[in-house]
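To whoever is on call:

I kicked off a structure prediction for a single chain this morning and the downstream step that reads the tokens threw a length-mismatch warning. I double-checked the sequence; it's 203 residues and nothing unusual in it as far as I can see. Pasting both halves so you can look.
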Amino acid sequence: MMLLQVFLIGLVFSFIGSIPPGTLNLAVLQLGMEYKIKTALRFSLAVAIIEYPYAWIAVVFEDWVTSSPIIIENFQLITAVVMTVLGGFTLWSARKPSEFSVRFNESGFRRGIVLSILNPMAIPFWIGITAFLKAQNWIDLSSQILIHSYVFGTSVGVMILLALFTFLAKKLAPYVKDHRYVKFVPGLTLLVLGIYAFVKYLL
């Protein structure tokens, strides 16, 4: 049961975290609008593959940081602060417009690998998310199989989101590119979770 739970939670938060306009999802949108479906799917697969080690690094680093006695004693408060700050920073970053036009070569997979490696924002994102989820006892990462199930969920989540962008590119492009509220979804999600953690700590 916990194996499936950590997988689904990783999938859901990865899906949400991949929504805002950025190099990767805008690249997939562009390919989809050019009807380069196979290239876009290869690109998406490459992004999902790189998401796995980045999320794994974040889980290991989060575990190392939270092993300190001081942090353990104040775990709930620290995760509340981290999530709130991360949410505020994400909202602030979302105010900056993203470039929509991205040039591609024909190998979507190679380009996806390179752009993903050069875009390691998944690591701080997953450090904050993992700390929060563990503090709320929503996930148990006490074994390697649970950790890899969780990390695999993050890869599947981003793959599903990018695949949707590929097949719905014509309909999604105006919203993701121009809609003022879509890019704030992940930041607002983090902010709400941070406030929830604060309330739970105070009560």
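Update from on-call: the warning came from a stale cache, not from the record. Cleared it. Sanity check on the structure: Residues 2-202 form one domain.
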